[in-house]
């Protein structure tokens, strides 16, 4: 019961924070004002859907803020995310983000690394222990394998591509991020992709692929086929951590990578 109440409080807090960051200054009562009806800001469109209205929660509940009391700096930060013109600017706008419960267990926000104008972007699930400590994605054993795929397989430098994750903070015990955590963090990934403007995205593993494509289709049926995310061609493939446990399936990833190389004009 306590767990359910805490989860609900987190959902409401994230929802309220995003509404505030999108410019809301009060809890809507009935229909929206005529001048804003039908116009949905991007961040608002991504806001988590709370199960109940914020007004149903006791004001004394821990960690719950409402649009009416959310800080002006939160509003400014959301605006900064949406209009950030560079990756450095976006990272600055994210600041010490505490939009979801993953903030409580992280050491560092793991934003992303690589060429800010990369032709190819790799997107994983979320930081693990090594990444959390270093603040950089894919630096453990799975990261070394990804680097091999990029450098030995594709004959690119790791610094030629851009690497990031769906969520920027480490989930506890390496569990999958929960839907409200993904929703809270998704504006950051969307802005990263909009700024990098890659020619192709490689979704690493089941979670990243299923999340970006909003599907439950198994990764073995997704991989090897082109999809699109925000208009960018997206190739799902197997996660390097999976390959460490199942090295025989490296050949499947190589098949996918060859399709990616062809897509961006590299000789396989
Ligand atoms: S996972 Fe994303 S939304 Fe959640 S606290 Fe970290 S940066 Fe913020």
CATH architecture of the largest domain: 3-Layer(aba) Sandwich
What portion of the residues fall into strands of 2 or more residues?
A: 5-15%
Structural class, from helix and strand content?
A: alpha/beta
Radius of gyration, CA atoms, in whole angstroms: 19 Å
List keywords for this structure.
268 residues; alpha/beta; Uracil-DNA Glycosylase, subunit E; 2 domains; 6-stranded mixed sheet; 11 helices; 43% helix; binds iron/sulfur cluster
Report on this model:
The protein has eleven helices and six strands. The protein is of the alpha/beta class. It has two domains: 78 residues, no CATH class; 162 residues, Uracil-DNA glycosylase-like domain (Uracil-DNA Glycosylase, subunit E), CATH 3.40.470. Strands 1-3-2-4-6-5 form a six-stranded mixed β-sheet, sandwiched between helices. The radius of gyration is 19 Å and the shape is globular. About 19% of the residues have low confidence. Bound molecules: iron/sulfur cluster. Iron/sulfur cluster binds next to helix 7.
Map the helices and strands.
Elements lengths: L1 H20 L20 H4 L26 H12 L3 H8 L18 E2 L5 E5 L4 H6 L6 H13 L8 E4 L13 H18 L3 E5 H9 L5 H4 L4 E3 L2 E6 L2 H6 L4 H14 L5
Parallel strand pairs: 2-3, 2-4, 4-6
Antiparallel strand pairs: 1-3, 5-6
Helix pairs in contact: 1-3, 3-4
Iron/sulfur cluster binds next to helix 7.
């Amino acid at each position: 019961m306590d767990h359910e109440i805490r989860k609900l409080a987190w959902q409401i807090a994230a929802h309220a924070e995003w509404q505030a960051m999108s410019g809301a200054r009060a809890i809507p009562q009935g229909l929206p004002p005529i001048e804003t009806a039908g116009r949905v800001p991007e961040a608002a469109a991504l806001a988590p859907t709370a199960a109940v209205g914020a007004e149903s929660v006791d004001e004394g509940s821990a960690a719950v803020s409402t649009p009416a009391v959310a800080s002006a700096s939160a509003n400014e930060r959301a605006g900064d995310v949406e209009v950030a013109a560079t990756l450095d600017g976006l990272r600055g706008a994210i600041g010490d983000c505490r939009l979801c419960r993953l903030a409580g267990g992280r050491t560092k926000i793991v934003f992303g690394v690589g060429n800010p104008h990369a032709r190819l972007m790799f997107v994983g699930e979320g930081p693990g222990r090594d990444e959390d400590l270093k603040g950089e994605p894919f630096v453990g054993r799975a990261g070394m394998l990804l680097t091999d795929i990029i450098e030995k397989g594709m004959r690119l430098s790791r610094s030629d591509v851009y690497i990031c994750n769906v969520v920027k903070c480490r989930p506890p015990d390496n569990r999958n991020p929960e839907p409200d955590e993904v929703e809270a963090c998704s504006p950051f990934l969307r802005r990263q992709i909009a700024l990098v403007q890659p020619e192709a995205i490689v979704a690493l593993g089941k979670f990243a692929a299923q999340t970006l494509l909003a599907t439950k289709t198994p990764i073995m049926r997704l991989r090897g086929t082109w999809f699109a995310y925000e208009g960018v061609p997206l190739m799902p493939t197997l996660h390097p951590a999976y390959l460490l446990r199942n090295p025989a399936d490296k050949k499947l990833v190589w098949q996918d990578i060859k399709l990616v190389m062809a897509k961006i004009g590299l000789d396989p």
